[in-house]
Automatic annotation (TrEMBL):
The lineage of its organism: Eukaryota, Fungi, Dikarya, Ascomycota, Pezizomycotina. This is Anamorsin family protein. Transmembrane segments: none annotated. Keywords: 2Fe-2S, 4Fe-4S, Cytoplasm, Iron, Iron-sulfur, Metal-binding, Mitochondrion. It comes from Colletotrichum chrysophilum. InterPro entries: Anamorsin, CIAPIN1, Dre2_N. GO terms for biological process: iron-sulfur cluster assembly. Its cofactor is [4Fe-4S] cluster.
Length: 307
């Protein structure tokens, strides 16, 4: 039995729902009550919540314990034991105890007649007193007090320990040198490498009825191959156009049938030049002339048409 005036009853489910808050370092003992059916199934489930067990651990005083009312071992449940350890509790005899970390003074004792170093930067320890050099910059008396002298002392030169160097940040470390030899990446490939066929992935292979297309970040060489084929096709077309423009235009007899009516039975390509302006094309050279018979000789000299 426990004194009801000195006890505090809290519900774990309300603590889990953040409806109540426990004071810090306030309880000497925390008892986990059993459920209504006499078991600890529900309480064990709630204690396995990290927030609940952390709040209970913070509410314990140093050396206080968390145990079950029925005397059961709380450490038997792995989830509860894990969360208790993470909250800073220690398993002791079926319960969990909050360690008591007391502060204890640490005494420092100085040995007698220990001397070290020489006179030019010496530290001497005699009778519990420590003094630096003849200037007496810092002294430690026998009662443990430290006195500072107004006269400064000269600090010894600092030497770099073995394996440690100093870096001059004003040195550019030859970062601006342009004499670095660059490696030509094409020189790294041999003739055998260049003649080796490209391994085109199946997804890059041309499909029936579709023009091949390379990926945006193509690395298999298909993009370069398509670009070379397009360049060759364009060059061939440009050469054909240039050759056609440079060659003279020659008209055969059949080509002159449209404008030449000196041949018996020949008519224009439209067949309407001899019928009159009503039947002539817009660009016909005979516009304005009266109709004439097919085969009749027509001459155009100096923009003067003669029949």
């Amino acid at each position: 039995s426990h004194d009801r005036a000195a006890t505090d009853l809290q519900m774990l489910d309300r603590l889990s729902a953040r409806l109540v808050a426990l004071p810090e370092s306030a309880y000497d003992l925390v008892l986990v009550l059993t459920d209504a059916d006499g078991s600890r199934v529900e309480s064990t489930r709630l204690l396995s919540d990290r927030a609940v067990l952390s709040a209970v651990a913070e509410a314990l005083k140093p050396a206080a314990r968390l145990r079950a009312q029925d005397g059961g071992n709380l450490a038997n449940d792995p989830a509860v034991a894990r969360e208790a350890v993470l909250a800073g509790l220690v398993a002791v005899g079926g319960a969990f105890e909050k360690p008591d970390y007391d502060e204890a003074p640490v005494t420092l004792s100085f040995g007698k007649k220990k001397t070290a170093a020489n006179s030019n930067g010496a530290v001497s320890l005699n009778g519990g007193a420590v003094s630096l050099n003849g200037g007496g910059a810092v002294s430690l008396n026998s009662n443990g007090s430290v006195s500072l002298s107004s006269k400064p002392s000269t600090a010894p030169a600092v030497s770099a320990p073995p394996g440690v160097g100093f870096v001059d940040f004003s040195d550019d470390l030859d970062m601006d040198d342009d004499d670095d030899e660059l490696i030509d990446e094409d020189a790294l490939l041999t003739d055998a490498d260049l003649s080796r066929p490209l391994n085109i992935p199946p997804e890059c292979a041309p499909k029936a009825g579709k023009r091949r297309r390379a990926c945006k970040d193509c690395t298999c060489g298909l993009a370069e191959r398509i670009a070379a084929e397009d360049a060759a096709t364009r060059a061939a077309a440009d050469a054909a156009l240039a050759a056609a423009a440079a060659a003279p235009v020659k008209l055969d007899t059949d080509d002159l049938a449209e404008v030449d009516f000196t041949v018996q039975g020949k008519v224009g390509s439209c067949g309407n030049c001899a019928l009159g302006d009503a039947f002539r094309c817009d660009g016909c050279p005979y516009i304005g002339l009266p109709p004439f018979k097919p085969g009749e000789e027509v001459r155009i000299l100096n923009n003067d048409i003669q029949l």
